[in-house]
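Much of what follows relies on a compact textual record of a protein's fold. A record is reproduced here so that you can trace the correspondence yourselves:

. . .
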Amino acid sequence: MSTELTPVPKSSLDEPEILTGSGAILRSLEHLGIKDVFGLPGGAIMPFYDELMSSTAIRHILVRHEQGAGHAAEGYAASTGKLGVCIATSGPGATNLVTAIADAHMDSVPLLAITGQVFSTSMGTDAFQEVDIVGITMPITKHSFLVTRPEDVPATIAAAVHIATTGRPGPVLVDVTKDAQQNSAPFVWPPKVDLPGYRPVTKAHGKQIQAAARLLLEAKRPVLYVGGGVIRAEASAELLVLAETVGAPVVTTLMARGAFPDSHKQHLGMPGMHGTVPAVLAIQESDLLISLGARFDDRVTGKPSEFAPNAKVVHVDIDPAEISKIRVADVPIVGDAKDVIADLTVAFRHIAKDTEPDLVEWWARLDRLREQYPLGYDEPTDGLLSPQYVIERIGQITGPEGIYAAGVGQHQMWAAQFIKYERPNSWLNSGGAGTMGYGLPAAMGAKVAEPERTVWAIDGDGCFQMTNQELATCTINNIPIKVAIINNSSLGMVRQWQTLFYEGRHSFTDLNTGHGTAMVPDFVKMADAYGALGIRVTKKEDVDAAIKLANETNDRPVVIDFIVSRDSMVWPMVPQGVGNSSVQYARDHAPQWEEE
């Protein structure tokens, strides 16, 4: 995506308006088409908030914690492809944004973080609430700006939005000193944006496209390995055409769920640590990997030296730093996935007009794997709910037009596995950073961006307790999200690893939220205190009714506390540091797994 610098009326260009730096921030955001922002005021950002209250073009959502503002802006961006904007004051306000900024950096989310800073004359003196947020965020942003003069505001905001939304999307921080916000200068729009060295490549070299097409034609066991970059590039339609043209199987990573329809006959599911057996083994047995917007993450590759050992690799990515970072590419292609995929389809059709790849044997093998290893789960023996069943029913009842945001852990993996995604931007999660607490505020941001869609936050009892204060934000601002707490009264994924790799020593993973007599806190009472509808479900026969009631309730948020078995585990599983062929291990072999 890109943001155009729209000119102001000509009369305004003749004599530039004199604005404070704060007024210039607001006017710049308005000219850039920003409609919604999430934030929390404080001393160093107060001049901007004084301007913001008079805006009729921008809606401000007052959060209860700055981390919530950051994740809400992420959810807003990830559900629409538009820029997300969050605002905080200096010091702890800014540092509370750091987790969300890092999260956006890992998952290539277009994010603009605006922070206030102490007076420029006080910087470096350890003034009250002074923190070098530009220095702190340099490793986790595409760029971080410090503004000390009001005349620099328009060009800086415009440059920040351009950087965040072009090339590989990501977070950009703009830190504005209080005196820069208070002082005045002529407001010039559109400003001159001069970014030496920033020239993202979107159009790939034709020879590389031809080489990739030739490998595709020659391959006997090709796999289209699709990453989140396809969603960020809005390239799902082009991917569908390429896949059907080539006839190859498609796997979609955790960040790419929805990039290719789950219902499509060529889709094998998600690869990686908790991927489907057909998806994992298809990659392992492939002779050609066409990697589209994927970065060969360790959760996908397992032990890199044993990943797809016989496959040639075509690696397509808009970020040249990702090419051959983990796996050396036989054909490296730097470019925007939307353009590259379209060009690759044209090139393949041209060279394959007289011959078609013979993939009959390959599909026979893959179909046997699908028949032999269907995705499933066992019913709990303790009489409690199956978490997989609960999540599956949420997806089935709500349907593919819903938006599903997850926290991090077992519930995240089950949501990726058992909800069927048919369209891009319907699945929001923290993939790279693995941030607990992401789900609820991300769902909040998505609902602000897409008010007509049903938005679910699928959370664990651990994740929910990290950011549940944003329920107040949802209630007060009429953001009726649905929250499903998959309550196993523990830090479920950590507990699973402790069961498998630490001889069942469950060290400090019991949360006391729903099993036995302990219930701290009582999530239904908490929901009621926040003005939400609280429901508790303990029986399978009550699951559907609770989900339907939540979907029908749109005058307030809904929180459903599903009491599920703590012994349920995420399967399949490839242990960390082990080759992906180990995905065939059944749970009876778990003691044989070892970390390396």
User: Anything to note?
Assistant: The chain has a mean pLDDT of 94. The first helix runs from residue 10 to 14. The longest strand covers residues 111-117.
